[in-house]
Protein backbone atom coordinates (compact mmCIF):
# COMPACT_ATOMS: atom_id res chain seq x y z
CA UNK A 1 0.00 0.00 0.00
CA UNK A 2 1.17 3.51 -0.74
CA UNK A 3 1.09 5.95 2.16
CA UNK A 4 1.05 9.74 2.28
CA UNK A 5 2.19 11.64 5.37
CA UNK A 6 2.86 15.20 6.54
CA UNK A 7 6.22 15.67 8.20
CA UNK A 8 7.72 18.28 10.54
CA UNK A 9 11.36 18.55 11.50
CA UNK A 10 14.07 20.75 12.90
CA UNK A 11 16.80 20.51 10.27
CA UNK A 12 19.64 21.83 12.44
CA UNK A 13 21.35 18.47 12.98
CA UNK A 14 20.81 17.10 9.47
CA UNK A 15 22.57 17.41 6.12
CA UNK A 16 19.32 18.13 4.35
CA UNK A 17 16.36 15.94 3.45
CA UNK A 18 17.90 13.64 0.87
CA UNK A 19 19.69 10.45 1.93
CA UNK A 20 23.47 10.49 1.44
CA UNK A 21 26.15 7.83 1.37
CA UNK A 22 27.73 6.64 4.58
CA UNK A 23 26.38 7.40 8.03
CA UNK A 24 25.55 11.05 7.38
CA UNK A 25 22.42 12.23 9.20
CA UNK A 26 19.55 13.11 6.85
CA UNK A 27 15.80 13.39 7.27
CA UNK A 28 15.09 10.73 4.64
CA UNK A 29 17.59 8.34 6.19
CA UNK A 30 16.11 8.72 9.67
CA UNK A 31 12.56 7.96 8.50
CA UNK A 32 13.62 4.99 6.38
CA UNK A 33 15.50 3.59 9.39
CA UNK A 34 12.45 4.03 11.64
CA UNK A 35 10.21 2.19 9.17
CA UNK A 36 12.76 -0.61 8.79
CA UNK A 37 12.85 -0.98 12.58
CA UNK A 38 9.09 -1.48 12.92
CA UNK A 39 8.48 -3.51 9.77
CA UNK A 40 11.72 -5.22 8.78
CA UNK A 41 11.22 -3.78 5.29
CA UNK A 42 13.53 -1.52 3.33
CA UNK A 43 11.52 1.35 1.89
CA UNK A 44 12.36 4.49 -0.08
CA UNK A 45 10.86 7.76 1.09
CA UNK A 46 9.95 10.40 -1.49
CA UNK A 47 9.58 14.03 -0.44
CA UNK A 48 7.77 17.01 -1.93
CA UNK A 49 10.92 19.11 -1.54
CA UNK A 50 14.61 18.48 -0.96
CA UNK A 51 15.38 20.91 1.84
CA UNK A 52 19.01 21.89 2.39
CA UNK A 53 21.25 21.37 5.38
CA UNK A 54 19.83 23.23 8.40
CA UNK A 55 16.47 24.02 6.77
CA UNK A 56 13.29 23.19 8.71
CA UNK A 57 9.80 22.03 7.77
CA UNK A 58 6.36 22.02 9.33
CA UNK A 59 4.50 20.88 6.20
CA UNK A 60 6.82 18.61 4.24
CA UNK A 61 4.86 15.85 2.48
CA UNK A 62 6.30 12.37 1.94
CA UNK A 63 5.16 9.16 0.29
CA UNK A 64 6.27 5.55 0.52
CA UNK A 65 5.07 1.98 -0.06
CA UNK A 66 4.82 -0.50 2.80
CA UNK A 67 3.13 -3.76 3.69
CA UNK A 68 1.46 -2.90 7.00
CA UNK A 69 -1.32 -5.09 8.47
CA UNK A 70 -2.53 -2.61 11.10
CA UNK A 71 -4.43 0.69 11.13
CA UNK A 72 -2.95 3.93 9.82
CA UNK A 73 -2.96 5.43 13.32
CA UNK A 74 -0.90 2.52 14.60
CA UNK A 75 1.63 3.10 11.84
CA UNK A 76 1.84 6.80 12.69
CA UNK A 77 2.54 6.06 16.35
CA UNK A 78 5.03 3.29 15.60
CA UNK A 79 7.10 5.43 13.24
CA UNK A 80 7.12 8.43 15.58
CA UNK A 81 8.24 6.33 18.55
CA UNK A 82 11.31 5.32 16.52
CA UNK A 83 12.18 8.76 15.18
CA UNK A 84 14.52 11.30 16.83
CA UNK A 85 12.77 13.99 18.85
CA UNK A 86 13.48 16.60 16.15
CA UNK A 87 11.48 14.70 13.48
CA UNK A 88 7.79 13.74 13.69
CA UNK A 89 5.02 12.69 11.34
CA UNK A 90 1.91 14.84 11.80
CA UNK A 91 -0.56 12.58 9.98
CA UNK A 92 -0.63 9.57 7.69
CA UNK A 93 -3.11 7.92 5.35
CA UNK A 94 -3.28 5.49 2.48
CA UNK A 95 -3.39 7.13 -0.93
CA UNK A 96 -2.83 4.95 -4.02
CA UNK A 97 -1.02 6.43 -7.03
CA UNK A 98 0.24 9.41 -5.06
CA UNK A 99 3.63 11.04 -5.56
CA UNK A 100 4.48 13.91 -3.17
CA UNK A 101 6.76 15.70 -5.59
CA UNK A 102 5.23 15.24 -9.02
CA UNK A 103 1.62 15.68 -7.87
CA UNK A 104 2.34 18.94 -6.02
CA UNK A 105 0.99 22.12 -7.62
CA UNK A 106 2.82 24.55 -5.31
CA UNK A 107 5.10 24.80 -2.32
CA UNK A 108 5.07 27.58 0.26
CA UNK A 109 8.18 28.58 2.19
CA UNK A 110 8.64 31.15 4.91
CA UNK A 111 11.91 32.83 5.83
CA UNK A 112 12.37 34.78 9.06
CA UNK A 113 14.81 37.62 9.64
CA UNK A 114 15.27 39.18 13.08
CA UNK A 115 16.57 42.73 13.38
CA UNK A 116 18.04 43.02 16.88
CA UNK A 117 20.74 45.17 18.42
CA UNK A 118 22.23 42.17 20.23
CA UNK A 119 22.69 38.55 19.21
CA UNK A 120 19.92 36.27 20.51
CA UNK A 121 21.33 32.78 21.28
CA UNK A 122 17.89 31.22 21.86
CA UNK A 123 16.97 32.01 18.25
CA UNK A 124 20.26 30.80 16.77
CA UNK A 125 18.63 27.98 14.79
CA UNK A 126 15.36 29.73 13.91
CA UNK A 127 16.08 33.08 12.25
CA UNK A 128 18.69 35.03 10.34
CA UNK A 129 19.83 37.68 12.78
CA UNK A 130 20.91 41.08 11.45
CA UNK A 131 21.58 44.34 13.27
CA UNK A 132 20.92 46.92 10.57
CA UNK A 133 17.25 48.05 10.25
CA UNK A 134 15.36 47.03 7.11
CA UNK A 135 13.29 49.26 4.87
CA UNK A 136 10.07 47.27 4.54
CA UNK A 137 8.64 49.43 1.76
CA UNK A 138 11.64 48.80 -0.46
CA UNK A 139 11.67 45.08 0.30
CA UNK A 140 7.98 44.79 -0.54
CA UNK A 141 8.46 46.61 -3.84
CA UNK A 142 11.27 44.22 -4.73
CA UNK A 143 9.26 41.18 -3.60
CA UNK A 144 6.44 42.08 -6.00
CA UNK A 145 8.92 41.97 -8.90
CA UNK A 146 9.35 38.23 -8.25
CA UNK A 147 5.68 37.39 -8.84
CA UNK A 148 4.73 35.73 -12.12
CA UNK A 149 6.15 33.20 -14.56
CA UNK A 150 9.76 34.10 -15.22
CA UNK A 151 13.17 32.71 -15.99
CA UNK A 152 14.77 32.58 -12.53
CA UNK A 153 18.20 31.43 -13.74
CA UNK A 154 19.76 34.31 -11.78
CA UNK A 155 18.66 32.66 -8.53
CA UNK A 156 19.66 29.03 -8.91
CA UNK A 157 20.09 25.87 -10.94
CA UNK A 158 17.39 23.23 -11.49
CA UNK A 159 17.69 20.02 -9.48
CA UNK A 160 16.78 18.10 -12.65
CA UNK A 161 16.99 19.04 -16.31
CA UNK A 162 17.89 22.55 -17.45
CA UNK A 163 14.61 24.49 -17.36
CA UNK A 164 14.84 27.52 -15.05
CA UNK A 165 11.36 28.95 -15.64
CA UNK A 166 9.15 28.91 -12.55
CA UNK A 167 5.85 30.57 -11.62
CA UNK A 168 5.72 32.51 -8.34
CA UNK A 169 2.19 32.98 -7.00
CA UNK A 170 2.97 34.86 -3.80
CA UNK A 171 5.91 36.95 -2.61
CA UNK A 172 5.44 39.27 0.35
CA UNK A 173 6.87 40.55 3.62
CA UNK A 174 5.27 41.03 7.03
CA UNK A 175 6.79 42.37 10.25
CA UNK A 176 6.05 42.39 13.94
CA UNK A 177 7.71 43.74 17.03
CA UNK A 178 8.63 41.12 19.62
CA UNK A 179 10.68 40.99 22.79
CA UNK A 180 13.93 40.61 20.87
CA UNK A 181 13.48 43.17 18.10
CA UNK A 182 11.65 43.38 14.76
CA UNK A 183 10.82 40.01 13.21
CA UNK A 184 10.43 40.08 9.43
CA UNK A 185 8.74 37.12 7.71
CA UNK A 186 9.03 36.54 3.97
CA UNK A 187 6.39 34.26 2.42
CA UNK A 188 6.91 32.86 -1.06
CA UNK A 189 4.81 30.29 -2.93
CA UNK A 190 5.59 28.89 -6.38
CA UNK A 191 4.98 25.87 -8.56
CA UNK A 192 8.61 24.93 -8.04
CA UNK A 193 11.97 26.25 -6.90
CA UNK A 194 15.53 26.07 -8.16
CA UNK A 195 18.38 24.99 -5.91
CA UNK A 196 18.94 27.65 -3.20
CA UNK A 197 16.40 29.87 -4.96
CA UNK A 198 14.53 31.04 -1.85
CA UNK A 199 17.73 31.78 0.06
CA UNK A 200 19.08 33.81 -2.88
CA UNK A 201 15.76 35.66 -3.08
CA UNK A 202 15.99 36.57 0.59
CA UNK A 203 19.66 37.61 0.35
CA UNK A 204 18.84 40.04 -2.46
CA UNK A 205 15.70 41.35 -0.78
CA UNK A 206 17.57 42.02 2.46
CA UNK A 207 20.27 43.88 0.52
CA UNK A 208 17.50 46.04 -0.93
CA UNK A 209 16.05 46.54 2.56
CA UNK A 210 19.46 47.60 3.87
CA UNK A 211 19.81 49.91 0.84
CA UNK A 212 22.92 48.11 -0.32
CA UNK A 213 21.17 47.28 -3.61
CA UNK A 214 18.79 49.51 -5.55
CA UNK A 215 15.45 48.33 -6.93
CA UNK A 216 16.80 49.01 -10.42
CA UNK A 217 19.82 46.78 -9.79
CA UNK A 218 17.57 44.09 -8.30
CA UNK A 219 15.32 44.08 -11.37
CA UNK A 220 18.29 44.13 -13.75
CA UNK A 221 19.95 41.11 -12.13
CA UNK A 222 16.65 39.21 -12.07
CA UNK A 223 15.84 39.89 -15.72
CA UNK A 224 19.40 39.13 -16.82
CA UNK A 225 18.63 35.46 -16.02
CA UNK A 226 22.24 34.46 -15.40
CA UNK A 227 23.30 32.83 -12.14
CA UNK A 228 24.88 35.37 -9.80
CA UNK A 229 27.79 33.30 -8.49
CA UNK A 230 29.08 36.09 -6.25
CA UNK A 231 25.71 36.73 -4.58
CA UNK A 232 25.57 35.75 -0.93
CA UNK A 233 23.01 33.10 0.03
CA UNK A 234 20.89 33.72 3.13
CA UNK A 235 21.72 31.24 5.91
CA UNK A 236 19.56 28.10 6.13
CA UNK A 237 18.20 28.37 9.67
CA UNK A 238 15.64 31.05 8.81
CA UNK A 239 13.95 28.91 6.16
CA UNK A 240 11.02 26.53 6.63
CA UNK A 241 8.89 24.52 4.18
CA UNK A 242 5.40 25.07 5.55
CA UNK A 243 2.77 24.05 2.97
CA UNK A 244 2.64 21.77 -0.07
CA UNK A 245 -0.56 22.09 -2.11
CA UNK A 246 -2.24 19.47 -4.30
CA UNK A 247 -5.29 19.44 -6.56
CA UNK A 248 -7.81 17.90 -4.19
Task: Please characterize this protein's 3D structure.
- By secondary structure, the chain is of the alpha+beta class.
- It folds into two domains: 2-94, 2-Layer Sandwich (Alpha-Beta Plaits), CATH 3.30.70.580; 106-246, Alpha-Beta Plaits (2-Layer Sandwich), CATH 3.30.70.660.
- Helix content is 22%, strand content 31%.
- It is built from five helices and ten strands, in the order βαββαβββαβββααβ.
- It has helices at 27-39, 72-81, 136-144, 197-209, 215-224; strands at 2-9, 46-47, 56-65, 87-94, 104-115, 128-130, 148-151, 165-177, 182-190, 239-246.
- Strands 1, 2, 3, 4, 5, 6, 7, 8, 9 and 10 form a ten-stranded mixed sheet that branches.
- The mean pLDDT is 96.
Q: What does the secondary structure layout of this molecule look like, with pairings?
A:
Layout: E1 2-9, H1 27-39, E2 46-47, E3 56-65, H2 72-81, E4 87-94, E5 104-115, E6 128-130, H3 136-144, E7 148-151, E8 165-177, E9 182-190, H4 197-209, H5 215-224, E10 239-246
Parallel strand pairs: 3-10, 5-6
Antiparallel strand pairs: 1-3, 1-4, 2-3, 5-9, 5-10, 7-8, 8-9
Helix pairs in contact: 1-2, 3-4
Radius of gyration: 19 Å
| Spans of at least 5 consecutive residues with low confidence | none
Helix and strand succession?
Answer: EHEEHEEEHEEEHHE
How many domains? The number is 2
From the N-terminal CA to the C-terminal CA, the straight-line distance is: 20 Å
Mean pLDDT: 96
Number of DSSP helices? 5
Q: Biggest β-sheet: count, sense, barrel?
A: 10 strands, mixed
Looking at the overall shape, the CATH architecture of the largest domain is: 2-Layer Sandwich
CATH superfamily of the largest domain: Pseudouridine synthase I, catalytic domain, C-terminal subdomain
Helix content: 10-25%
| Class based on secondary structure composition and strand pairing | alpha+beta
CATH domain topology of the largest domain: Alpha-Beta Plaits
Indicate the CATH class of the largest domain. Alpha Beta
What fraction of the residues are assigned to beta strands by DSSP? 25-35%
In total, the number of strands is 10
- Based on CA inertia axes, which overall geometry fits? globular
Amino acid sequence: MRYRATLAYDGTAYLGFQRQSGDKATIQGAIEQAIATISGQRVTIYGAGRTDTGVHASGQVIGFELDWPHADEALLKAINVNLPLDIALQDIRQQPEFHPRYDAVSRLYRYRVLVASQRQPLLLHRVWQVSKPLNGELMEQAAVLLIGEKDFAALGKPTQGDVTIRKVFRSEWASQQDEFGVLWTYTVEANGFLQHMVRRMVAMLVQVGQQRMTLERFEYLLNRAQLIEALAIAPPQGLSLEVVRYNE
